[in-house]
Amino acid sequence: MRSSKEQSLDKKILAAVKKLSPSLKAVRMAKLLLEDSEIQAMQDYANTVSIKRLGYNDHGPVHMRTVALNTLRMMELLRRADIKTSLELEESGDFEDSLVAVLMAGFLHDVGMTMGRQEHEIHGSYLAAPIIERLLKKGYPDKLPLRVSIRSVALEAISGHMGNRVIHSLEAGVILVADGCDMEKGRARIPMAMASGPRVGDIHKYSAASIEEVRISEGKEKPIRIDVSMSGEVGLFQVEEVLLGKIAASTIKGYIELYAEEKDKEPKRYL
User: Fold this and answer.
1) In a 3-state reduction of DSSP, which class is residue 214?
2) Domain ranges of the chain
3) Tell me: domain 185-269, CATH 3.30.160, correct?
4) How much of the chain, in percent, has pLDDT values that exceed 70?
């Protein structure tokens, strides 16, 4: 049974995809992702491992849906600025094919957490590969070369979402930043409630708990503007050690303005 939060995100994702998918092929793939029982089960167990076993913050269905939605927002802003995706530039696919790739990566990027935190991005790649291929065969039944291109971009995004491996496609760069943007306090709600003694990784949940809002909008100087509002300075860990590091490793770094604002203080511009 999906939570009300998951259902709300599902509606937002479909609405966002419909705006960007005139041919509806990305809409069809989005529905396949949302309806897939194996993906849902993997997302749920990834959260169980992350929160109950490791004491980390949310890495489950809400997080992965939020990353997918963040991705769609940034893809729309890049599209508005006439910035081409890698599949477009390489003439391997069109914008909607890139949407399919990033949607798949968004929904599956943390499935490696079902096996634990260490190298979860690599474990996630081989866990996601057969699912991606299975769904692509439904959406692109007679287009093997295009399936290969989309699958490759999606897997690059999954394996590169931690920012510690060099990525090259614009699509993978979007996933990297979209993942870093999911750091609002709701993501740390459950591990904070379960907190007992000090544990490794506590800084992540305490810093995330101070993040009030992350807004992704059109920038004045660059296509994408990210505003982070926080209740206390502990939130700077999320901005400076997590988000800023992911942006620095991303192929879309040059397209981003980044601001952080602590309560009752002037916004600080990072990029």
Assistant:
1) strand
2) 4-178, 185-269
3) no
4) 92
